[in-house]
Amino acid sequence: MAKLYHFPLSPFCRKVRLCLAEKRIECELVEERYWEQDTDFLRRNPGAKVPVLRLDGKTMAESGAIIEYLEEVYPDPPLLPRTPDERYEARRLAAWFDDKFHHEVTSKLLYERVNKKVMGLGYPDSKNVKAGAQKIKYHLDYMAWLLDQRRWLAGDTMSIADFAAAAHLSALDYISDVDWNRHAVVKDWYAKIKSRPAFRSILADQIPGFPQPAHYSDLDF
Amino acid sequence: MAKLYHFPLSPFCRKVRLCLAEKRIECELVEERYWEQDTDFLRRNPGAKVPVLRLDGKTMAESGAIIEYLEEVYPDPPLLPRTPDERYEARRLAAWFDDKFHHEVTSKLLYERVNKKVMGLGYPDSKNVKAGAQKIKYHLDYMAWLLDQRRWLAGDTMSIADFAAAAHLSALDYISDVDWNRHAVVKDWYAKIKSRPAFRSILADQIPGFPQPAHYSDLDF
Ligand SMILES: N[C@@H](CCC(=O)N[C@@H](CS)C(=O)NCC(=O)O)C(=O)O
Ligand SMILES: N[C@@H](CCC(=O)N[C@@H](CS)C(=O)NCC(=O)O)C(=O)O
């Protein structure tokens, strides 16, 4: 069976978990405390990052490269649209979340509030937390603007753009940092993706020291 | 004609320039002072980053998504290998450079020494410069280890992995921050890619305030 070395709240790991589950690739989850950099882990991935996926006799790192591989080898169901234009848009938005949103929001809220504590790096820097709380509004507005014109973030079909976005937002939702009331259209989108079977494992995550809030796994949040 | 809004030393822009040139897509270069965030620029890319490519009546951002698009619509010559395994490896290594190398090296050396001055943000932070100078050694060692077993970084064919790596290293070479004598095999690889016609425009770049060093454009460096 496939094995995913991951950390529960890592958005990159969550994105891969969602893609694996949508494609019904069964996968054992192994929690990896990547910041401890143990030698087995470094042997699996010299990049020293999670996710690391063991599949088809290969050990793979880099979530974007992993997902393109899955898409080529396990094309059903597809997680990229059909035309080059639409595929471009899905990839652009996945990168938007994994680069820009990650830098401006996830690293400022989740990493300050949770990762620092878990890794024993001290207290959140309130300047960062404030900056992240400010920036997430602008990203939710951008999503609302997209979703006013489209069923899913990148167009009429669900794609890696939705999984990347949902991976970051679900991790932030675990610490109640997403204001779902800001835009009905964004809340509807999240309700839709949250109710997919592929989301179940993510809704079951529990982080020691951070009790899951009630709304987190509630489909009527 | 296509138009690329870029900044000369940006590794993400250089990667796209190399891919466009290999595919012989003629392209006008427009220098974009992206940190000034003028409104036309923000209209073209709400992400406010370069590169931004105007091609086929579309305006595109995110270098990775742009390159996958080019690969699908202008497949000749291919910049990704043929099998899913090899394609995975090329994408993984491109991401290695654009994520890990960028974070550990490019942002610590190039952004400290050049971008800060160009943007009027003051002097390099010597702690960062030292950290970058230390880390680049480890990355050159990793490249040497790969190139001991392969003709190109990701395998037997030149790929986006080589262009991503060459984009970062060429920008660092402009400020003489690459020790080409560390590994003959890395130097040979760079000599090979540097002598390609696609590299010419990059070797002609000039940054006001930072005179081009003699070895930079020399094919016998
Ligand atoms: N580009 C990588 C990023 C993965 C990543 O940054 N993972 C974080 C956890 S969320 C990590 O392992 N960080 C450790 C490090 O950066 O050394 C991917 O897409 O897989
Ligand atoms: N993920 C983007 C990264 C591009 C990027 O970071 N570009 C830099 C210049 S090297 C930039 O525009 N930075 C401005 C910013 O981050 O706001 C890509 O691959 O195109």
From TrEMBL, chains A, B:
GO molecular function terms noted in the UniProt entry: glutathione transferase activity
Domain GST C-terminal: from-to ranges: 83-217
Transmembrane segments: none
One GO BP: glutathione metabolic process
UniProt entry keywords in alphabetical sequence: Transferase
CDD domains: GST_C_family, GST_N_family
Pfam family, one: GST_N_3
Highest taxon in the source lineage: Bacteria
Record-annotated GST N-terminal domain positions: 1-78
Transferase keyword on record: yes
Classification via InterPro entries: Glutathione-S-Trfase_C-like (IPR010987), Glutathione-S-Trfase_C_sf (IPR036282), Glutathione_S-Trfase (IPR040079), Glutathione_S-Trfase_N (IPR004045), GST_C (IPR004046), Thioredoxin-like_sf (IPR036249)
PROSITE patterns found in the cross-reference section: GST_CTER (PS50405), GST_NTER (PS50404)
Assembly with partners or alone: Homodimer.
Name this polypeptide is given: Glutathione S-transferase family protein
Natural source organism: Thalassovita mangrovi
